[in-house]
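Minutes, project check-in
Item: structure for the 73-residue chain
Input as provided by the requester:
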Amino acid sequence: MAKEDEIRLIAYKIWEEEGCIDGLDCEHWYRAETIWDQQQKQKSAPVTSKPETRQPAKQIIKGGAAKKKSRKR
């Protein structure tokens, strides 16, 4: 799809969302251009992976779950 067609669709969606009010076509078009530009930047931005975070290793307890030691006074 061509750039102008994509912007036209975005502007139309803005117009619908704002209640189909006439006379704001230029404003909707400029907003749609801004949205289109932002979308293109997001598409072309390099994908950076998040650094892996290591989870602490679980303690391995022989014989199943850990038992609480009760202290009697």
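Outcome recorded: The chain has a mean pLDDT of 80.
No further action items on this chain.
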